[in-house]
Amino acid sequence: MGYIIDFVALALLYVFVFLRKWKGKGTLFVNTLMYIYLSFVLYFTLMPIIISIPSILNHSYAPMNLVPFIDVLTGRGDFLRQIVLNIIMTVPFGFLFPLVHKAAKFSRMIFFCFFMSLGIEILQPFINPFRASDITDLITNVVGGMIGYGFYVIFKPVVFRIFRLYESRNLKFVNLKKYL
């Protein structure tokens, strides 16, 4: 039930705030993709959020593990799966961020990817007492964003060719002037 409440809140936020803001700008498609992506990141990392708010301070806070790759070094748990999933989770961020922000340089993408990941890592133990914060997650998330940005650089000509195709057909898919 908690997930439904969170997804309804995200849908209402999209319809009543972001859809109106993005509708006439020609970037509706790209911004909507980023919004959907970030919604799934919330789903996999923090949800349910709204029903967890009353009990945020009712449990102890486990401090963040600040030893990078301690699970790898000690052979604890399914560390390889966690590393791969954390990298995969932020690859779309690295790819979509420069499409959403016109002045997005590599360093700016890393900055935002780092702080998105840090926010998630800090909030996880508050929202879900069974989740722990880990510096390894922070590192691997930033690596995923870097890989995604690399994909953006490689596939940029293809992406803009698709944008031009839709723009030439008079569809308001994306505003190419923003990127040129």
Description:
The N and C termini lie far apart (45 Å). The protein has helices at residues 2-22, 28-45, 70-74, 79-100, 106-127, 135-168. Helix 1 (2-22) runs antiparallel to helix 2 (28-45), helix 2 (28-45) packs antiparallel against helix 4 and helix 5 (106-127) packs across helix 6 (135-168). The model has no long low-confidence stretch (mean pLDDT 87). The protein is flat. The relative contact order is 0.14. It is built from six helices and no strands. It is mainly α.
Write the topology of this structure:
Layout: H1 2-22, H2 28-45, H3 70-74, H4 79-100, H5 106-127, H6 135-168
Main sheet: strands, sense, barrel: none
Q: Give me the secondary-structure category.
A: mainly alpha
Number of helices: 6
Coarse shape: flat
Could you state the order of secondary-structure elements as H and E? HHHHHH
- List segments where confidence is low: pLDDT < 50 over at least 5 consecutive residues: none
Tell me, rounded to a whole number, the average pLDDT: 87
Helical proportion, percent range: 55-70%
Oligomer: single chain
Q: If you compute it from the alpha carbons, what radius of gyration comes out, rounded to the nearest whole angstrom? A: 18 Å
Q: How many strands?
A: 0
What fraction of the residues are assigned to beta strands by DSSP? Answer: under 5%
- Tell me the span between the first and last alpha carbons: 45 Å
